Give the backbone structure.
Amino acid sequence: MEDVAIIGASMTQFGQRDAWIRELLAEAGQACLDDASVAADAVEHLYVSNMASGEFEGQTGVPNALAHDLQAVPAYTARIDQTSSSGGAGIYAAWQSVASGASDMTLLVGGEKMTHKTTAEATDVIASLTHPCEYKHGLTLPSFAGLTARLYLDTYDAPRESLGRVAVKNHKNGVDNPHAQFRKEVDLDTVLDSPIVADPLRLYDFCPITDGSAALMFCPVSVAEEHADEYIRVSGIGGATDTHVVHERADPTTMRGVVASSEQAYEMANLSPDDVDVAELHDMFTILEFLQFEDLGFAEKGEGWKAVEEGRTERDGELPINTSGGLKSKGHPLGASGVAQAYEIVQQLRGEAGKRQVEADVGLACNVGGFGNCVTTAILEEVDA
Amino acid sequence: MSDDATLDEDAVGTAGDDAPAFEAARYPDGSITYPAHPVGPGGEAPVGTVDLSEHTAEVITWTTSTATPPGVREPNHVAVVEFDVDGEPVRAIGQATTGDIDIGDEVEPVYCEKLRDPEAGIRHPDSQEWDGFRFRPVE
């Protein structure tokens, strides 16, 4: 099996964009080709992470469209849909394509166009991933977050304010991310006084609806050694699922997909949670940052909220979480988010994160689809060629 | 939100002879799931059903959603509950008749002919059933 490197990375401006899905994908794809100094005709595999371009704007067949728009024909193409973790699943697919020897140059582009829909319409598109027994009751991803947050706070005697501090932290980090949708700090009172969306969670506990795209270029380490002075190595990767029907989980505050996928990634990388210097977690809702922090092994069950309260996950803390601003501040264009998480880790490991820069040799990205239904975890390390 | 009267809380009633069963599946290893699956937690096909409408349940957690998709009542109270069927725990999720509930409360299922407007959402109206059971606090 080939060791896999990342030699290029890009992301577009996240937010409300005039561009539609094809343009968004092409923008990030071309920028990644440029960043990697790779010609389009050298791309052998091209993957597009996207949840719902057909449902959102009536455009299907986006991988082939992108191959043509980038002049990457005749590259093999495939679309990767794993709902909100489509980006992470795309990283997994791209890694597989290179590790298996099937491709020596794989471009992954993740993107979504969402903001032309109303919040209710976009929420319904996302909620279409639910089981019929959930959908008919009007269950949405935000309502699962409300259900879980209430149980977490009650079970672990955590203060409501701790969830608010996740939003405060991630908004603060997003100020220094030029690609972020929101570059504005919020204080705890603003979070706690914002309108209720899914009790006990309020507006600022939720990520926004976003347009955007991000891309990564993968190749064998042997190719990267000749191609660049430094590159990022995919040290570990894992993917796992949990039940489709959320209420059938024995412990709703544990995301077994996070546990299983991270165990795979740690084992492959021969690393432990203590070795991770910086991480991007899927904070679609503030409660998810606690659950992943614990299920990735960064804290004991029920203790994750204390790390936020004590400032340990701040940019200058012992384990900075979501230096990009997270989905909360940066935005969450579904198919792009997992790729953009890795983009932030790549920037941190390259030392190119600007004001967001932290000391990091090992970074982790955890991308969650559904409400923990499907998860990928990737561990990246910087290597001098 | 639809103004269809069947979506209002007044439209619910206690499960009676006319109401369908609140059907969960029982598997050879004794486990019970709602909804039913082709195979259960032990990897075997169901061997029977259980009507959960004949039981009460305990609220595990709940929320009130104030930003609901097309065709869903607003606000939408929903709860995860756990039934005890002869010592076997069975969890279910569904709308609650009120937001005046708490973790640990006892609730009973009440039948509702139409939980959301099938014509308003993204899912095809014929692709699934739209009736079901809400959870009402036991007085």
In short: Residues 1-10 of chain B have pLDDT under 50 and may be disordered. Chain B has one domain: 5-22+56-137.
